[in-house]
Amino acid sequence: MTAALTVYVLMWPVVVAATLFVISRGFFREWAEARRNGHDLV
Amino acid sequence: MDGMETAQFSAVIVVGLLVFFYGGTFLISARIGKKEENADGYMTAGNNIGFGVSAASMTATWIWAASMYASATSGYTYGISGPIHYGLWGALMILFIYPFGKRIRAVAPRAHTLAEVMYARHGRSSQLMLAGSNVVGSLISLMSNFIAGGVLISLLSPFTFIQGVLCVASGVLLYTLWSGFRASVMTDFVQVVAMLGAVAVIVPFIFFAAGFPAAFETGAANLTPQQGNFFSSEAFMGQGAPYIAAVLAYAIGNQTIAQRLFAVRESLIKPTFITATIGYGGMVIGVGMLGVLALYLGFEPSGGDMNNLIPEMAATYLPSALLALFFIMIVGALSSTADSDLAALSSIMMADVYGRGVAGKGRANPKTMLLVGRLTMVVATALAVAFASLQLSILDLLVFVGALWGALVFPVLASFYWEKVTSKAFTTSVLAALAVFLPVRFGWIPVDGVFGYVVDVLAVIGIGVVLGLMVFGFSNLMAAKITGVLAMVVAAPFAIGSLHEYATLCGSLVAYSVSTVICWAMSARRGESFDFSVIAERAGDFDDGDAAAAAPGGTGEALDVPSPRSAGGDVPDGREPEPAAPAK
């Protein structure tokens, strides 16, 4: 039970970290592409 | 734990953190600022934002300070399933709206607000209902975030609540005023990095610092059987069910979501909304787990005020450096939502009030529009600060606006798929739903007699409507009808006779059912139909400047949507034959 609760609590920071990675990767790719093409990012 | 001493920052450190945060966001805003902003860019950034920026922006906007506090409160009150019953349904609000969002975007690719599209579809009354509820909702949200900022600063520093509110309000206005929505989405990325990064570090740190996992065993006695049960019926009925009912309502009624729906590149709507769903869910449920940990520890927030729970947990278990990160996380959460609210309010005043109302399509001056948008931000900030100082009950206000949005869900969604829905059906159904909602929600009529059974029957129909609409978004009309009927048949034996005891849940459900039944009844027999393709022309760009021309579908490129056979004049009449636009 303790192990299950530990996983249950600590899985959310892992989900958050993975989402942060996906968003950051998308952002920096678009930023680099915008710079290459001389466009504004927004 | 009662009466503990929480850590505090000195005035110099708090000022330093605020200058670091708002100074940084202002610099980002200044970097993207243009001397001559484009009016459409100010509202929707050219309808062409990429995945990274839009996913960050959706996530940051949907996470507000109250969602973190409320999730932790839910964990503390309902136990281990509490954060799920807050965060999961909140996350699904984003997920369930994207299929409808794709349809809305296909019908109105260059619109700025949902109210503007309703004007193109039905005319003035539906536009006013949607815009009015959006304005009230955004003002409440703005006020709530300023209150959260004031509370946080007063709790962790020598500054007073009002000084905290003024710091946050002026900081947000500073970086949003000039570039509007463009500044909002650009700064959202930095804010989301701060928020998500902080949760990824802070939650595990507090977990181990507070003596977990051993505390799961030593503190188990602090939980009631319901709190220790993952399938707690108390948690579902008290927290989860009202939220499920609100899933579509909050997404439809919130202009901050609609604005991002119109801003993101059309092909990226799905990945953006799915990523934001996961990001929001992980973040809010993760913070909510602090409430569960507090429950196991027997931690009591000072004064019994649940708003103190998270800040006091952080102040108790985090070292100064991580407490500063926590401070930035909360300031980031409230600022990203507040700047989105300012951008939403300004776009409603620009597009709906000035653009479609005062000036009229084709006659709106882009420079005047920008002035209207910026003045709106200043006035809205002043109003929100004034309301924040009164410390009104945010939850009561949100419940009322949420019901108004619930009444709008079916008429709004049906208006995008069903050519028979008329302005009269829209307006009548929403007003009737509100008229039934008010006595149910606030107990104006006793529900222990016949009226109670009427409420239960309407609520059961509401369950069918909510689930049917959710299925319709991802499937088709037949599957939605089957789901709706099945849901009613399954729920009826349990609900009739008892559901009226849950006033919040019933209030939302009757708002759905009454508006749906009346809107359907007034529309079904009509022989006339509406040509959806005229909406694209009626709800288009105001400014033919560079930002609009550069974007796909802008004035410089052909639209990839059905071309209207008739513009239909300035006032929608709904008399065109059925459309080339894709229909469900």
UniProtKB/TrEMBL annotation, chain A:
Keywords: Membrane, Transmembrane, Transmembrane helix
Keyword presence, Membrane: yes
Organism superkingdom: Bacteria
Transmembrane segments: 6-28
The protein's name: Uncharacterized protein
UniProtKB/TrEMBL annotation, chain B:
CDD domains: SLC5sbd_DUR3 (cd11476)
Signal peptide, first to last residue: none
Source superkingdom: Bacteria
Transmembrane segments: 6-28, 49-72, 84-101, 128-155, 161-181, 193-216, 236-253, 273-297, 317-338, 371-391, 397-418, 425-444, 450-472, 479-496, 502-522
Keywords: Cell membrane, Ion transport, Membrane, Sodium, Sodium transport, Symport, Transmembrane, Transmembrane helix, Transport
Topology within the bilayer: Multi-pass membrane protein
Region (Disordered): 545-584
GO MF terms, alphabetically ordered: symporter activity
GO biological process assignments: sodium ion transport
A single cellular component GO annotation: plasma membrane
Subcellular location per the Swiss-Prot or TrEMBL entry: Cell membrane
Reaction catalysis annotation: L-proline(in) + Na(+)(in) = L-proline(out) + Na(+)(out)
Entries under InterPro entries matching the protein: Na/Glc_symporter_sf (IPR038377), Na/solute_symporter (IPR001734), Sodium:Solute_Symporter (IPR050277)
Major site of localization recorded for this protein: membrane
UniProt similarity note: Belongs to the sodium:solute symporter (SSF) (TC 2.A.21) family.
Family matches, as PANTHER family: SODIUM/PROLINE SYMPORTER-RELATED, SODIUM_PROLINE SYMPORTER
Protein name, per record: Na+/proline symporter
Organism annotation: Streptomyces prasinopilosus
